[in-house]
Amino acid sequence: MALVYAFDFPHDASPRALGELLGGKGANLAEMTSVLRLPVPPGFTITTDACREYLASGWPSGLDGAVAEHVERLEVALGKRLGDAGDPLLVSVRSGAKFSMPGMMDTVLNLGLNDRSVEGLATQTGDERFALDSYRRLVSMYGRIVLGVPADHFDLQLDEVKARVGASDDGQLTADALADIVQAHLRAVEAFTGEPFPQDPATQLRGAIEAVFRSWLAPRAVRYRRREQIPDDLGTAVNVQAMVFGNRGDDSGTGVAFTRDPSTGEPEPYGDFLVNAQGEDVVAGTRNTLPLAAMAERFPSQHAQLLEIFDRLERHYRDMLDTEFTIEQGTLWMLQVRVGKRTGAAALRIAVDLTTDPRLRLSPREAILRVRPEHLDQVLHPHLQRTRATPLGTGVPASPGAAVGCAYFDPDRAADAADRGERVVLVRPETSPEDVHGMIAAEGILTSRGGMASHAAVVARGWGKPAVCGAESLTVGPDSFTTADGTVVHEGDTISIDGSTGVIYLGEVGLVETEPPPELEVVLGWADELRAGRLGVRANADTPDDAARARAFGAEGIGLCRTEHMFLGERLPVVRRMILADTPDEEAAALAELLEVQRADFVALLEAMDGLPVTVRLLDPPLHEFLPSVDELLVQQARGLLPPEGEALLAAASRWREQNPMLGTRGVRLGIVKAGLYRMQVRALVEAALVRRDAGGDPKVEVMIPLVSTLAELELTRQWVLDEVVQVAGERAAELGVLVGTMIETPRAALRAGELAQVAEFFSFGTNDLTQMTFGFSRDDVAPVLERYLEEGLLTVDPFASIDEPGVGELVRTGVERGRLTRPDLKTGVCGEHGGDPRSIAFFESIGIDYVSCSPFRVPGARLAAAQAVVARAEP
Ligand code: PEP
Ligand code: MG
Known about the structure:
Strand content: 15-25%
Bound molecules: phosphoenolpyruvate, magnesium ion
Number of strands: 33
Helix content: 40-55%
């Protein structure tokens, strides 16, 4: 197994498909070098295999040899040697995992410089300043990243010398000043580590490679992976590449550019550019950048060459790309390419545009793969209401959507405030990966520095979080910011930001729903065609309003109407009376009351979903959600404040109190204990269906029995349903075509699916309860345990959010297979939270589920994810 591949290695497959082995960056560098033959500085990639081996059992044997061999090859190709006192080769060492983790892991530049080679570099370039500047960057970067010297040691030294010589920015430092800084940095390293800065380039290289491997485990990288659900066991590749310099004078520069506008999707290249700077300066957002168009004026031929490269890249990748490039003394070099992150609106526009672009002509199948379900969330996000208020300032509209919250200036305090339930806007001069936990906790992000490609902008866009970046008129301090006119906004003050326009306001501005772009319907239309007949999408909706919204979002029916949700709020006492009834008369009276309200609700629900199936689940109230709190009643009693009827309530509530309500008298168990309840509900439903038929409607009713474990439970309750249908509808029963099915929520039900299917006409997998019971994790109490498990990497994803394929998923698969053996035309759906989760949807598609059902807002994303699953499986 090779541990290292040169960028020009002739792989059997297209290298861009080798992201798992080479990391995304390495794979694309190889693609640009070996397939597209673009101008890429030569280099090599140390594989993720090597990283995994390192993380498991230390430095891989054979790696030193392989690296040395590749360094030598590089030296021969370039005619320069690492550490050479005459004309030294310098390399960069960068991480690059399979999935992009912007800025999460470490990079060391200018490696190969030492006390001798810095002189060689000065002689070769005729630029002593440049050589010393490169060396001081190496010592501080290497010191910080590889040797763990705190960054402020170096920053303070830099500031000290700048103050002494009266330089306001780094560019004004003379060679002498830079030489002083180098010496100070070298002393800082020695003082902190007890060892001199390593002069041997091979030692430097090994240290840097090891630091990149280790950075995979850095807390910020781990946090990012949790957020993005990136598995912990992938490891990162390491790219070692000959350095090119964008800071070699005014004929040099560096930039980050997208082949199309990543914010709007407009088919025009978009990016940031800096003259006489290194790439990190653009990404860090520490210097204010020029738009790409300005490059056309300064560097016309390189600009034209870049556009030509963009054209080739788009034709080749058939997508919008994100690139990094450098011009070194007039020569253009490509340093990176990857499929570009984009906003939801841009994703939709690009997907549609690429189908009509004569160079590409994407098919709808390809086009839907250019949009992610999260993108749809973004275009369905709110924005700020119009307001007459004077803005506090404006910045770059870096990530669309609007946010209102209290300003917090520190990521820890922001995260704490969010934990306390506050809505938070994180305000920083700029962000770095160290801030990620605060960014996650925030509703929105505001920075005073940096452009579209800055860390804050890239990360926020990827997450669909509103962000305003580079609001230069704000002076951001440690716990307040000051606007141009002197207004001071303190920590905790409410601000509103609009990431689509870049405007910032003091105080709370109302949020309004957005108008999705016209491309949304086009893309969803394609998605619907592609998944037709394979995977349906329904909604979990309990009220007529929800049902109408779900239908507007494209739901093809209701997969779960939780009837107990019809009894929240002011109707709660009715259910409570029914549960707590002491005598048959009391119970009958409460049921009669329920019947009335249920019938009216069902009529409206069936009307909203006319012509589409509506699965009504018979009552499944975990009792603790519906009963008064025994503890509170006891307190009232102790204080002598309990009214006479309260005594009865307390007695009844105590009788029904359960230790494990989620495993208690719920679902079919309550139905059996409270005989009469299910009959009443079916009566209300059938009466409602008849009302709808009489009104010329087309109600399609499916009755579902929850939390079943045994055939006997299902047979008994199903018979009640059938009896009631006949009793209420008489001869019209057949006309209604009511189906009766069951939820599969207990492991036993999944295992005994074969016999349940003897009487169930459909199965709906309640994967929330099925997850709870399969893991034995209490849905209500597991949060702190899960948090810990996720932190420790004992679980990679929250199994309540994304289906646990090997365990819970296996039960679903078993249930489907066994059920279909008995009843080949058994309809199967999933109505747990997983029904709206794209990953889980792909799994459900693969095991032959007929439909998923999720909350109305997730329906568009589910339609897309379902189509993507169908397409991906047809052509992996
Ligand atoms: C489920 O358990 O997955 C389900 C949909 O039911 P509920 O969440 O109402 O228990
Ligand atoms: Mg359930």
